[in-house]
Write a structure and sequence with these properties.
Helix content is 54%, strand content 15%. With 209 residues, it is α/β, with parallel strands linked by helices. The protein binds 2'-deoxycytidine-5'-monophosphate (DC).
Amino acid sequence: MIIAIDGPAGAGKSTVARRVASELGIEYLDTGAMYRAVTFGVLSREIDPSDAESVIGVCRQLVLEISVDRVVVDGVDATSAIRGPEVTSAVSAVAATPEVRQFLVELQRAWILERGAGVVEGRDITTVVLPDADLKLFVTASPRVRAERRVAESGGDVDAVEAAIAERDRRDETRAASPLSISSEAVVIDTSEMSIDDVVADILERVQG
Ligand code: DC
């Protein structure tokens, strides 16, 4: 069983994907962590994330180890740093570089080929990486709800967080290379008024019929 999940930042995708994978006894791949890991490597080398040529060079040199609970970049544990504000504000520029996308998409396809099953989550999984997945889902929520969830988790001002989320959506949706879009074959799940448990139950029902 291969499950592909796309959706915008803060829609609850990662939590849901992790839970569904664990319920089904299969592995989970967070592709956003891969873009974040490359961004961490770019920033550690003091390279400008919008300098595509240098970013591509870094991408080829990096040694990435990405597992369910740890991200190691060139031997350095970057698990917390990839979620920090520096990486978060630079990741969109790195993810907009076509060669970086090609490089990571190959790794993602190899990951699933090796296992034959898994839950893979990101922005272009249903459209580009695994268009033949058994189940394709687009998990979303209103920008307001996504901002409220983020503030409940890590604090901040809800209006400012909502504005930042809307800005990141805009960048992810309007970039030339594999913009975030809804596959015509994907089932859309709006989690604005659903709990995590409801969403997981909904997906398991679709899998198990
Ligand atoms: O899901 P996330 O917030 O960790 O993703 C980090 C960034 O990477 C986000 O700006 C979108 C980008 N991304 C992408 O372009 N394609 C993916 N498959 C996953 C993430």
